[in-house]
Amino acid sequence: MFCFRKLYIGLSILFFMAQEYIPYISPETSIKEFTLKALLVGAVFSAVFSAANAYLAINSGMTVAAVFPGAVIAMALLRPFKGTILEENTARTAISAGESLAAGLVFTIPAMLILNIWEELDYLTTTAIALVGGLLGVVLIIFFRRMLVTEEELAFPESVAATAIIKSGQKGATGAKYMFGALGLGFLITFLSSTLNLFKTHVRGVIDMGKGLLTYVNPSTGAELKGGAKSSYLFYDTPYAGGIYLGVGYIIGPRLASLTFAGALLGWMIILPLAMFFLPGLPGNVPIGEVEGALTVQYSIVRPIAAGAMIVGAVHTLYKMKASFVTGLGTAFKEIKGGALRIGKKIRTDTDLPMKYVAVLFVIVAIAMGTLYTILTASVITGLVSLVVMILAAFIFVAISGYIVGLIGSSSNPISGMTLVTLMFAAALMLALGLGGSVEGMAATILVAAVVCCAAGIGGDVMQDLKVGHMLGGTPWKMEIAEIVGVAAAAPCLVIPMNMLHQADIIKGGIGIGGVSLPAPQAGLMALLTKGIVGGGMLWILLIVGILIGAFLILAKTPNVMILAVGMYVPFYVTFAIFIGGIVRWFVDRLLEKKGVFGEKKRAAINIGVLLASGFIAGEALMGVADAGLVIGGFDLALLETPLGWPGLLVIGLVMFLLIYFPYKHGEKQLAES
Question: Which domain holds residue 276?
Fold first, then answer.
């Protein structure tokens, strides 16, 4: 009798041999890869980039991928010690874990402060959440690695770009001087502006547009009803004087930067003036026509409206990606189901961590998380329900995250939307368990969302890194351990900068994270929904207005409503600077094309700007955290009581010049060499 199974196995072997991918370093080549120096570099800079991205996410609601700067740092620091390309890949893999973990944690856990559940972030609990969420992301994505990294339909655009940078670095062109130079300049800018108080980072105010007699007309009778004289005001704010947000705009590009700024114009220049015009006054003798009054109106009225628009934007983003979600889940289940049919001799470049170790790590993570939930909610049932929700949501969204990163890259991965769905489901379960209105119910909701957000963020990051390793010839199990090292290094460090920023803002007279200075937009949305669903007491009309605005923007075919809503939420000086950075990127693109620089040469030139932008972001963010430490310690190094306004314009001009000049000169150089 003819055996179809043998035929299937034979054809599978032939197919596998025909499709075998030949990486940059062949599977048979044995070179240094998993070394102590590579892991040390990865661990240290994973912690550094986690702190920088925590600062950035709290202030702007965005993070930037560390895959490019991580590759440059690995090359620059390991090259003098004769580091191989695979050692550099190991270090870069660990470095990039910190950025993703920061995004997952900062998008969620500050909601505990905003809801006044904690006065400051609990160090042990927050570190445990970050560690468990990160490890869960690494563990789950291992199940899907083999199929996703070899899926021909997945372009992995950022992985391909990172691989190109690493390969070009083998010729000596690491680009480290641009990034480290910008990092030093970023340090200096923040030191001069915030620490020494020599110049203002932005100038804001309210313009009195004059008084007018407000006349109402009764539509039924046509009679005019004379109202009182009303004052009208227009808020203004200058762009941030530094490179951090200009750098973000340069990295995300003109399209997303313009969408963010459009949201700022809608929130700060349309909704805010209307609210100030119609409000009769503010409690506490706060004048509407002054900066404090304008910020109070924006915080209390415009922000909830922006949150409603963010909800619609998040749901719409997930809906648009429904086909990708279904495909990603189908791929995941297919990989698990087909695991037993894998045949052939294992090769170095296709060997994951042994499944028995992965299973043990998963059980440890589950037990730790179940115990933590039970302690925080003071209920075994609630703790177990929270654990089940966390595991199911993490499994689904890690698989989806890995697929989407392969499709469009990690920068466009809708982590916030996935977390939002998880949070709303968890909040509904808390109500079903009778925890409505309780602090324990709100805490459990936020913590479930935090673990899932960390897991999904790390899952996408790991998949992107594994694809880079697949193309370079890295060993998967060694890279998976490097990711675990990166998570373990970043998790204990993330709480510190967030608590420092929170405390320093309170000392300066603010309210800490969640206030005007530290908006934490995604965490603010999580807090708003948790309070509304579990805690009760939400002013629903403002949220509904935001939802309707978001629906209108979707009907008008606005490309990314959630990004636009973030622009409504964060400070105007942030989005203004991001917009300028996006315009600079557009200008550099046009300059290079006009010069005749296209294709790989253009991408290489643009990457010089990305490295400069990454340096500015890291330098200013880290100095910002250090400045918060000085404030907490009581060290006042201010040289001027009233900082100057005009030097900020010079700083903006300098950063713009550098972001234009060096990419353009690099493009010219490549043309001359060719």
Answer: 186-208+231-310+549-673
Q: Do residue 322 and residue 306 come from a single domain?
A: no
CA 312 to CA 545: how far, in whole Å? 11
Query: Is residue 282 located within the same domain as residue 339?
Result: no
Residue 308: other Cβ atoms inside 10 A? 25
What CA–CA distances, in Å, run from 461 to 64, 142, 404, 466, 627? 12, 12, 11, 9, 30
User: Exposed, middle or buried by CB within 10 Å (0-12, 13-18, 19+), for 422?
Assistant: buried
Statement to judge: residues 336 and 295 lie in one domain: no
Residue 35: pLDDT band with limits 50, 70, 90: very high
Neighbours of 229 (CB within 10 A): 9
* Cα–Cα distance for residue pair 103/53, rounded to 1 Å: 7
- Rounded average pLDDT over 481-502: 94
Q: How many helices (H) and strands (E) does the chain have?
A: 25, 2
Residue 8 has which token pair? 């299937």
In angstroms, the CA 345 to CA 20 distance is: 13
Residue 1 counted as domain residue:
no
- 302 and 323 within one domain: no
* Cα angle 72, 97, 160; round to 5: 55
Rounded distance, CA 481 to CA 81, Å? 22
Cβ proximity of 464 and 472 under 8 Å: no
Examine the domain organization and report whether 459 and 335 are in the same domain: yes
% of the chain with per-residue pLDDT over 70? 91
CA distance 54 to 520: 10
Say how many domains are in the chain.
Answer: 2
Residue 93 to residue 484: CA distance in whole angstroms: 10
Same domain as 335, residue 260: no
DSSP structure string for 316-356: HHHHHTHHHHHHHHHHHHHHHHGGGG--S---GGG----HH
The per-residue pLDDT for range 505-546, each reduced to its tens digit, is 999 888 999 988 899 988 988 898 888 888 776 778 898 999
Token pair listed for 369: 């998380």
Q: Which is more confident, 338 or 542?
A: 542
Cα dist from 671 to 166, 340, 595, 605, whole Å: 21, 52, 9, 11
For the packed helices 439-472 and 67-78, what is the interaxial angle rounded to 10 degrees? 60
Residues 6+ apart with CB under 8 A from 302: 267, 268, 271, 272, 275, 568
**Domain for residue 113, yes or no?**
yes
Statement to judge: residues 267 and 290 lie in one domain: yes
Predicted structure pTM score: 0.87
Report long-range pairs for 645-648 (Cβ below 8 Å, ≥24 apart).
645/199, 645/200, 645/203, 646/199, 647/198, 647/199, 647/241, 648/193, 648/199, 648/200, 648/201, 648/202, 648/203, 648/238, 648/241
| Local structure of 508: helix, strand or coil | coil
Each residue of 558-568: pLDDT tens digit? 888 888 988 99
Domain boundary among 476, 507, 538: 507
* 191 and 298 part of one domain: yes
The span from the CA of 119 to the CA of 381, in Å, is 27
Residue 255 belongs to a domain: yes
Which residue is associated with the tokens 């982590």? 415
Residue 225 included in any domain: no
Amino acid at 122: D
For the CA atoms of 609, 615, 621, 625, what is the dihedral angle to 10 degrees?
Answer: -170
Round to whole Å and give the CA distance between 48 and 58. Answer: 16
Q: Which of 507, 536, 559 is the last residue of a domain?
A: 507
